Amino acid sequence: IDGPPASVVALPMATRPDGAAARLVRCAQAGAGVSARRQVRPSAGGANPSPRGGRPPASGPWARGRLGGMAEGRGRFITLEGPDGSGKSTQAERLVAGLRDAGFSVTPTREPGGTPLGERVRQILLHAAELRPAPATDVLLFNAGRAQQVAEVIRPALDRGDVVVCDRYADSTLAYQGYGSGQPLESLRAVEAFTIDAVRPDLTILLDLPPELGLARRRTAGANRFEEQFDLAFHRRVREGYLALAAAEPDRFVVIDASGPPEVVAVAVREAAARLLPELRAPIGRP
Questions:
Q1: Cα 49-242-68 angle, rounded to 5 deg
Q2: Which of 23, 147, 228, 285 has fewest C-beta within 10 Å?
Q3: What is the pTM assigned to this prediction?
Q4: What is the DSSP string of 57-88?
Q5: Minimal CA–CA distance to 142: which of 152, 230, 134, 40?
Q6: What is the pLDDT along the chain (287 residues), one digit of tens a residue?
């Protein structure tokens, strides 16, 4: 998508697994590696490549081109990312409410989770520290849940014309398992390309704040495995990774200072979403 550069918005703003998911789960259980033979990339001339099976991309800039130029019958895909404690879930809920008030059909979802398979994966990833998953296992499990979510929730919603709002997506794996845990980014991107089948966000809102503040917030809300077992240096690398991803894709990312009150951050989030969906600029009765 074409749009303004990535910017820091100053305050005041039981289902059977899909084939790809099943393969990734089996790899994780076996401790095996996964390689993808190719990544779906736009050609040098900007033509739309076809993902496997010749199916046109359901989402992302290759499917729809410029902001405001959404193809008929296709929805929009917004993701919220950020370090632990940045308020993604709260802001996702506020954004979904605002979109619905503005008349949009919205499909909210989250990662890990979003499907019956994904919710089981979530329990392993976040709340089963005694299993001690290796970093590569984390990669494969996150992507197994993601593959199921794309097939079962995200792609069908986009095909219906919905706005999909996802609390975390593929960038989280790059930030946490790549920058945070040191897994090779090239390998992570190969697994990502296989997993998401060209379903990429139109807009990613990055809620940024110092990890010291985010972790302090989470201690009062109940911590997960990543917050309890990973040190401050890890979370600093995650934040640096997110900012590096945003700098590399300024047309997709909007970076928002998430250190302020939730109601103030919500104004900035809505303004960011309005770049993609101008109807949100009209007053709708909610922050």
A1: 50
A2: 285
A3: 0.74
A4: PSSSHHHH-STT-PPTT--EEEEEE-STTS-H
A5: 134
A6: 344 444 444 433 334 455 555 545 454 444 433 333 223 233 333 333 333 333 333 344 333 333 333 444 589 999 999 999 899 999 999 999 999 999 999 999 999 999 999 999 999 988 877 888 899 999 999 999 999 999 999 999 999 999 999 999 999 999 999 999 999 999 999 999 999 999 999 999 999 999 999 888 867 655 666 766 778 999 999 999 999 999 999 999 999 999 999 999 999 999 999 999 999 886 544 44
Query: Nearest Cα to 63, choosing from 186, 192, 242, 198?
Result: 198
Residue 8 backbone dihedrals phi, psi, to 5 degrees: -90, 115
Q: Which two tokens stand for residue 100?
A: 């619905």
How far does Cα 123 stand from its chain's mean position?
18
Other CB atoms within a 10 A radius of the CB of residue 267 amount to 17
Q: Which residues contact 107 (CB under 8 A, 6 or more apart)?
A: 75, 153, 154, 157, 162, 163, 164, 165
For residues 170 and 191, give the distance between their C-alpha atoms in angstroms, rounded to a whole number: 10
Mapped onto helix, strand or coil, the DSSP state of residue 180 is helix
Helix (H), strand (E) at residue 250: none
Q: Are 42 and 62 in contact (CB under 8 A)?
A: yes
Cα–Cα distance, 147 to 195 (Å, whole number): 5
| CB-CB contact of 109 with 116 (8 Å) | no
Quick check: 138 and 112 in contact, CB under 8 A?
Answer: no
Strand residue runs (E) in the chain: 8-9, 76-81, 106-110, 163-167, 203-208, 253-257
CA nearest 256: which of 221, 202, 201, 204? Answer: 204
Phi, psi of 154, deg, nearest 5: -70, -55
